């Protein structure tokens, strides 16, 4: 059996382990989309869902609702625009803003995307043996990080070790 160094590190490598899982799921999802000949990225489903629900949003509104940075949002929306999935037009009041909406191409694809999302959710649910407690733990982590950043928590713990080693 192969040694799993990241797993052995436990909490010291939690971020790496979560990233590894995320990367695996994204890679496999990308492979799935290629297999069924749909040219989208795994992370785009969030934007499809948001715009299906809200019809029109600005880039800032999308970024805020997803918790993404402005630069990553710009890059993602540019790719989606280039593929013809979204369109943008100047905001009527504030010309600096762009109203973003789904194109007809996306709207036509939505029924298939909904089947995909449903299948994906079921696959994850079954993989977790129908135990949804992981979502509770993720909620706890995200809530704690909103309250006090990881940087601050990390720094506080580091300061404690400096005091005890002096």
For the report, how would you describe the main beta sheet? 3 strands, antiparallel
Stretches with pLDDT under 50, minimum 5 residues:
none
How do the helices and strands follow one another from N- to C-terminus?
HHHEHHEEHHH
Query: Which strand order spans the largest sheet, edge to edge or round the barrel?
Result: 1-3-2
- Overall pLDDT metric: 92
As a percent range, the share of helical residues equals: 55-70%
Mind explaining what this structure looks like?
With 166 residues, the protein is mainly α. The chain is built from 8 helices and 3 strands, in the order H-H-H-E-H-H-E-E-H-H-H. It has helices at residues 5-8, 14-35, 45-54, 59-66, 70-82, 104-127, 133-147, 150-165; strands spanning 56-58, 86-90, 98-102. A 3-stranded antiparallel β-sheet has the order 1-3-2. A hairpin with a 7-residue loop joins strand 2 and strand 3 (98-102). The longest helix has 24 residues, at 104-127. The protein is globular. The model has no long low-confidence stretch (mean pLDDT 92).
Offer a concise description of the structure.
By secondary structure, the chain is mainly alpha-helical. It has 8 helices and 3 strands. The model has no long low-confidence stretch (mean pLDDT 92).
Protein traits:
166 residues; mainly alpha; 3-stranded antiparallel beta sheet; globular
Q: What secondary-structure arrangement, pairings included, does this model have?
A:
Blueprint: H1 5-8, H2 14-35, H3 45-54, E1 56-58, H4 59-66, H5 70-82, E2 86-90, E3 98-102, H6 104-127, H7 133-147, H8 150-165
Antiparallel strand pairs: 1-3, 2-3
Helix pairs in contact: 4-5
């Amino acid at each position: 059996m192969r040694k799993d160094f990241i797993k052995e590190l436990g909490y010291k490598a939690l971020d790496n382990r979560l990233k590894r899982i995320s990367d695996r799921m994204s890679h496999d999802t990308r492979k799935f989309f290629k297999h069924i000949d749909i040219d989208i990225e795994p992370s785009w489903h969030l934007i499809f869902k948001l715009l299906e629900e809200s019809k029109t949003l600005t880039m800032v509104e999308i970024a805020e609702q997803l918790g993404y940075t402005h630069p990553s949002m710009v890059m993602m929306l540019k790719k989606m625009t280039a593929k013809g999935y979204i369109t943008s037009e100047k905001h009527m009041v504030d010309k600096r803003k762009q109203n973003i909406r789904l194109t007809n191409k996306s709207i036509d694809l939505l029924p298939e995307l909904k089947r995909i999302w449903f299948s994906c959710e079921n696959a994850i649910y079954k993989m977790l043996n129908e135990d949804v407690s992981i979502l509770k733990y993720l909620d706890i982590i995200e809530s704690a990080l909103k309250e006090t950043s990881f940087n601050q928590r990390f720094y506080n713990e580091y300061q404690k070790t400096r005091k005890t080693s002096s």
